[in-house]
Amino acid sequence: MDSPWNELTLAFSRTSMFPFFDIAHYLVSVMALKRQPGAAAMAWKNPLSSWFTAMLHCFGGGILSCILLAEPPLRFLANNTNILLASSIWYITFFCPCDLVSQGYSFLPVQLLAAGMKEVTRTWKIVGGVTHANSYYKNGWIVMIAIGWARGAGGSIITNFEQLVKGGWKPEADEWLKMSYPAKVTLLGSVIFTFQQTKHLAISRHNLMFLYTMFLVATKITMMITETAIMPFAPFEDTLSRMLFGWQQQFSSCEKKTETKSSFNGTGSSTSKPIAVASDKVKKKHTKKTE
Amino acid sequence: MDSPWNELTLAFSRTSMFPFFDIAHYLVSVMALKRQPGAAAMAWKNPLSSWFTAMLHCFGGGILSCILLAEPPLRFLANNTNILLASSIWYITFFCPCDLVSQGYSFLPVQLLAAGMKEVTRTWKIVGGVTHANSYYKNGWIVMIAIGWARGAGGSIITNFEQLVKGGWKPEADEWLKMSYPAKVTLLGSVIFTFQQTKHLAISRHNLMFLYTMFLVATKITMMITETAIMPFAPFEDTLSRMLFGWQQQFSSCEKKTETKSSFNGTGSSTSKPIAVASDKVKKKHTKKTE
Amino acid sequence: MDSPWNELTLAFSRTSMFPFFDIAHYLVSVMALKRQPGAAAMAWKNPLSSWFTAMLHCFGGGILSCILLAEPPLRFLANNTNILLASSIWYITFFCPCDLVSQGYSFLPVQLLAAGMKEVTRTWKIVGGVTHANSYYKNGWIVMIAIGWARGAGGSIITNFEQLVKGGWKPEADEWLKMSYPAKVTLLGSVIFTFQQTKHLAISRHNLMFLYTMFLVATKITMMITETAIMPFAPFEDTLSRMLFGWQQQFSSCEKKTETKSSFNGTGSSTSKPIAVASDKVKKKHTKKTE
Prior knowledge:
The structure is a homotrimer. By secondary structure, the first copy, chain A, is mostly helical. Chain A is built from 15 helices and no strands. The first copy, chain A, has helices spanning 4-13, 20-35, 39-45, 47-68, 75-78, 80-95, 100-105, 108-136, 141-166, 173-177, 181-197, 205-225, 234-246, 248-267, 272-290. The longest helix of chain A is centred in the middle third of the chain and has 29 residues, at 108-136. Chain A binds chain C through residues 35-49, 66, 70-74, 77-78, 80, 83, 94-95, 97-99, 102, 165-168, 170, and chain C through 67-70, 136-137, 139-143, 146-147, 161, 164, 170-173, 175-179, 241, 244-245, 247, 250-251, 253-255, 258-259, 261-263, 265-272, 274-275, 278-279, 282. Chains A, B, C: It catalyses: K(+)(in) = K(+)(out). Chains A, B, C: GO terms for molecular function: identical protein binding; potassium channel activity. Chains A, B, C: It is a multi-pass membrane protein.
């Protein structure tokens, strides 16, 4: 129990996010916002709206989990210190003369460091969400998974929704459907930490936090260096989906139509055309079945 | 008090919804989801999103009432048993090989049985919502009506909203405006049970539940067999709207101004076309009435 | 302390909003709703939806603040008296024969009186919101500002959102971004009353309420009479934005890069056109400044 490994992970799990890791998280979020086309011009035209959007990018996960648990979404505003910290980072990022921050951030090592530290905060958010949900619902393990997921990766949902309200984002079913890599890895972590919380995993939490964080940082940095969206889950997902939803043997006999249907739908995104196609397919299928 | 009728209704009002009626409700909801064009293909492409949509179809009313009362919308996830039940029904409905479930459901008697049992759950939801709202606001009878209505028929609103966020549904003012038959009958039931709750109706609750449920099931099955959207409320609505909003005599004389005014106003905006048409319709109706 | 001025403001600050000022607020809100193209025709086609929209117009600010503080958004429905008052005003406004109300309201003095009384209610709402938020978060002055702002000017946000759901309103980034004059003045008042609440302003609340209300009423009536959207904040905003976000000297020299960069980024996305225009405008402005 007193092995150096244990001490290391224990000390790691007690690291405080507050000053530095939060700064890295805010910096990455605000830079991602500034990368959006026109964000800089909007910041000059209407600083208040830009500040609000930046806050949504920084605190979106917490806001979403508050909404899901019927806690005040404004609670994040009550934490004056973090608000002022994020606001100052938003300020220097957007309004620093000759935007030195963007130029400094454009160096790869800085980006790697900031992204790595942001991934560390993701672990803390997931753990916080799972334990928080556990305090509400003792054995509601589905709720724990959902809240951990919302805290860790809910920011994108909130910002998408804000884009929708602003009208700057025309949603498409496919965009909404496909999960991004952070969403997937956060869901995995949320499931793992929920099982650990409900004593279904025989591993101490600080060890799990250390290992999961290392995995997060390693994959993130690898993806940033090799600039390729590597999907470590692809084979796992394939096997799982084949196990759960596949049954290729029996299924391939009478389900090929649906497969072709899906590929058809994939081509057209404007939802009106594929729907007609789909309904036609369905008709054909039934007629074939009746024949 | 011990009449067989009373015993029957009392026993009926004590029926537990849990295993069988809930199953029927989930089955009808999931089948309605699967009937949507492209839903099956989406389930193959992204099972998680399809599962989420199915849960919204199954628990939408409860979620809406939770939102309106500022209770955690995730509470429905804490009821693991119902979640697993609905999930398994969603699973066998979408991924059963050669989808046997759909074929079995395509037989009319099965549909009638499932639809009838679903209507029974509607009564239980309305009563639950009214009593739940009554525990919050003692004499807030408007809140009781709203919550009973939301629990009973709020699922469609939630799913419409989800469609809107997904972008699969382009809303139109008229769609949103016109109430469906279930919404109307649920509103009626919510009003009735609210009056019974506030002791304005001299009828015991179990009798009222029995009668209202019988009415629901009878109308629903009649509509399904005769495949015609019968509107038992149409004459009632006409008389009511004529009493409240009609005053045709004075109105037809000097309302044309406002009609023309409204169409004038309409010219400026993007929604001018449908409005003008609507006002024309209204005009025609009134001219016919005056003839 | 017993100066007549003090007594006047004290008595003013103790004025009850209930019967008359609330009526004026409901009247102005419902008339603004009726002015919308097609609202009258919709009221005839679907009175329930029109009533719901009218309630949103009348109680929108309170609903928004309830949502932000995770209080039941339906609470406003529990206040039966105000609901019935607003409903009756909605009723006589829309369904009065030969709509006498609209014709009576079309006289300028009536409009001025109603608008002035509505502005008085704005002050009461801001103060109520600030004190209410203060009871939640002792030193969360950002929350206090937000809640005061939401109560005072949140109705427009709620109604915009309702329009979005109905599909009657196609949002554009610019519409969402630019704040209306009431939003600005409400934000100013919310900040002022928050500072007074946190003892940073050495002025008694009733004096502040009197002065702020006088300012509101005066500006509103001036804007209505001279039919010009006067912006008393324009110079203040210019100086502030130049102080905070300006730094024109360094900025105009090296900001063109980011402008062009942003327009480059813009080319990919759907919102590239307006952004490019905006950045062009900004460029022109800066070039003019540099000349």
